[in-house]
Amino acid sequence: MHCLYDLLEDVEVLEIKNKKNVEVKGVEYNSRNVTPGDIFVCIKGYRTDGHQYFAEAVSHGAAAVVVEELQEDDTVPQVRVDNSRRALAALSCNLFGHPSRSMRVVGVTATNGKTTTAYMIDRIMEKHGLMTGLMGTVVYKMGRHVEPARLTTPESLDLQRNFARMQEEDVSHVTMEVSSGALQLSRVEGVDFDIVTLNNINKDHIDFHGSFERYFKSKSLLIRNAGKGARAVLNLDCPYSASLVDDTEAGVVTFGVESREGHLGCRNLDLSTGRARFTAEVLKPFSGEGKEYRPGEKIKLALAVPGYHSVYNSMVALTVGMLCGVPAETIKNALQGFRGVERRFELIFEDDFKILDDHFANSGNINMTLGTLQLMDSRKIRVVYAIRGSRGVTVNRENAEAIASWAPRIGLEEIVVTLSRSHVTEKDRVTEEEVEAFQEVMSRAGIKVRLFEELPDAIFSALSAVQPGDVIILAGAQGMDYGAGIALELIRQWRPEIDHKRLFEPLENRVAGIT
What we know:
Elements: E1 2-3, H1 4-7, E2 13-17, E3 23-24, E4 26-28, E5 38-41, H2 54-59, E6 64-67, E7 78-81, H3 84-96, E8 104-109, H4 114-127, E9 132-135, E10 139-142, E11 145-148, H5 156-168, E12 173-177, H6 180-184, E13 195-198, H7 206-209, H8 212-224, E14 231-235, H9 239-242, E15 251-255, E16 264-270, E17 275-282, E18 286-288, E19 291-293, E20 298-306, H10 308-323, H11 328-336, E21 346-350, E22 354-358, H12 363-375, E23 381-386, H13 393-410, E24 414-418, H14 432-445, E25 448-452, H15 455-465, E26 471-475, H16 483-494, H17 500-503
Parallel strand pairs: 4-5, 5-6, 6-7, 8-12, 8-13, 9-12, 13-14, 14-15, 22-26, 23-24, 23-26, 24-25
Antiparallel strand pairs: 1-3, 2-7, 9-10, 10-11, 16-17, 17-20, 18-19, 21-22
Helix pairs in contact: 3-5, 4-10, 4-11, 10-11, 12-13, 13-14, 15-16
């Protein structure tokens, strides 16, 4: 049990109504989860206002309630704050005893590549023999315990609970994806970040943030808020990342694939097979944990994951590994053995034709993916695209424009499109306006759209037309999560001679699209 006033340490309290220092058992932000002795925090969300559930929380036994607006109730203490989300973060840190302080925490943000980069870093730490934690879009890994992710960055209470679980599992190094929404909504306040990274930024989540400027402002908070004892890894090839070099108290380490002005650079890049070979080179001196790096030091890398974007992701992971004192040979072996993350330019079938699975979340992601496909040897590229549901007209128009801009270069005259009606939940349902925005751009570009309500019908259509040497890209975010399983099952039915275990190997340990 905790005393209310102890838990309120670091919370910016404006006033307390019905003031008394009650004993508190826990903290909750969902009234349905409140049990006797909990503090209930009323959060003003985008769809509902937690103040509406004040009475329900009290009826469930809430010992105190945190509010932004005082309620007509005299039964429990009401703690009025200016920002209840910020208060929730402080309460959660105090409830669990600030567990992130006992670990080295790496925060990864970017528009594209957060998940892959976080996995690469985690693999490097594992290869070094460390007990690791990982939180992001696909899974939450807390030492030996793994569970599917619900949010890229959990709500602050759930985040601190995960850190506490990691502490129990003797986790020493944690890598976590940090979304722009989480930064804007104060979910990571109180997290003791040791290393923060911003790899790239381009237009995404504009409908959520209101403008690109606000989106960048939210993203940059991870770097700007980093403390003096932290390190910040920034990409000089991205002007937005580079603009933060002098805008943080953290010790900055820079890299570039094209730029030679940073601490680390890239030499002899070969992407002829789609899988990068290159040499990472120290250009300026910097220090890691117990090691000094001097100009001229080199690490030769041959990545197993394809794509130009993988070079950038691996440069971030390499730099983080060096800052954590991991030996160069260990980093090299970890990155060369890394086979990728599900639905991130994932090769799921490779025979007389290829099938790639990619989440195609935004225009930057699309440009990277189609740019890599252009470099690959293929007869014809066939795109099966799941429209991004409930992300707004802006995102879907920009995604369509990105696809259209690549169409002449990759020979795309027709695209198979699906709404995935039966394979998405309400929060990812495609609206008529989103379909119209996408089709309008395709029509203007002269690209024929074959639209299917259901995902299996769209994939069946593409597979029925495939020829030897073709590449099919299963493209799309939540609406394409089940695509790989559907495609491989169709191949199993049509080609029973193929070894089933080998065919379905890409789905082993998969989280997305598994019921």
